[in-house]
Amino acid sequence: MTIEVLLDKGKIRRSFAAAAQSYDGLAALQRQVGLELLRRFPPRNGTGPILDVGCGTGFLTGHLAAAGSEEHLLALDIAMPMLAACRGKYPRMRADYICADAEKLPFAAHSIDRIYSNLALQWAVDLPAALLELKRVLKRPGSLVFATFGPRTLLELKQAWATVDDYAHVNEFHAAGRIEMFLRDAGFNEIDLASLLYRSEYPDVESLMRELKGMGAHNVNRGRKPGPTTRTQLQQMIKHYPRQDSRPGITAGYEIIFVRAVARA
User: Fold this and answer.
1) Which pLDDT band holds residue 17 (cuts at 50, 70, 90)?
2) Domain range enclosing 72
3) Which of 22, 104, 18, 100 is nearest to 55 (CA)?
4) How many domains are there within the chain?
5) How far is the first Cα of the chain from the last one, in angstroms, to the nearest whole number?
6) Which residues are listed as membrane-spanning (predicted)?
7) What is the spatial order of strands in the sheet that 250-263 belongs to?
8) Is 156 inside any structural domain?
9) What percent of the chain has pLDDT over 90?
10) What pLDDT does residue 2 have?
11) What is the reported pTM?
């Protein structure tokens, strides 16, 4: 089944701008995924610029700086407060900070040696167009390395909200097969792709919801319900959230797709 991903870019920018101060205290999954991304695809030696797309508060950027301190590092994010948080967190890091949209990069063609991105490209409104733009700025050969959410992310929360109404309460994400197709259509090859399911534990559903909001990752679908959710609707969703009989609390699944692709032509 084909899923059309419809995201509200204005809400994405506002959500992550508002989350800049609370992000680090809640982003354990992002840090875990970022380390795994670097383990799978460590930065190789090079002389050209490295671009971190969707740098957030700079966790991956800092590790890239440590791995290649003599190379030109570019930290890009759509939300200016995230860039300010990154600069404040790493005051001695030698990097240029760019507030821009990953779908409209302010770089010349064939000017970037490597692109990294950790849990950011899932917010692209038009992922095929974004991949074309990333390939445009890459040198030949140049590598694109990223981690993104897959469609099994927050499946438990989706199932619970489905008992309330038919609105999109949880973000939809592209499957691995579609991402590979988009990459090939954009002209990438030598594609290395893997999917892992991470599980995070929470004391209750409200804690999960607060974390998603605090990270700026709450519902940004254009098909979301207009107007606020009522307390009755929220309680109905919580009642139907899948529980584990063996221990208290809840778990939430996050499908992470790890990708490396090369632009040669």
Assistant:
1) low
2) 9-149+173-197+254-263
3) 100
4) 1
5) 31
6) none
7) 96-99, 73-77, 50-53, 112-118, 138-149, 250-263, 188-202
8) no
9) 71
10) 37
11) 0.88
Q: Which residues contact 111 (CB under 8 A, 6 or more apart)?
A: 48, 49, 137, 139
Q: What tens digit of pLDDT does each residue of 169-218 get?
A: 888 999 999 999 999 999 999 999 999 999 999 999 999 998 888 776 65
pLDDT of the residue at 263: 97
d(CA 190, CA 198) in angstroms, rounded, equals 26
Q: How far apart are CA 231 and CA 77, in angstroms?
A: 34
Both tokens of 8, joined, read: 């509200």
Q: Which residue has the higher pLDDT, 69 or 143?
A: 143
- The pLDDT value given to residue 1: 32
Q: Is 234 a domain residue?
A: no
Which residue bears the tokens 């949209």? 101
Q: Is 168 exposed, middle or buried (0-12, 13-18, 19+ CB in 10 A)?
A: middle
Q: Identify whether 191 is part of a domain.
A: yes
Instruction: Report the CATH number at residue 16.
Output: 3.40.50.150
DSSP E strand boundaries for the chain: 50-53, 73-77, 96-99, 112-118, 138-149, 188-202, 250-263
So what's the pLDDT on residue 245?
A: 74
For residue 141, whether the previous peptide bond is cis, meaning omega lies within 30 degrees of 0, is yes
Q: How many residues can be counted in the chain?
A: 265
Residue 112 lies in a domain: yes
Q: Read off the tokens for 188.
A: 């990438």
Residue 265 has a pLDDT of 82
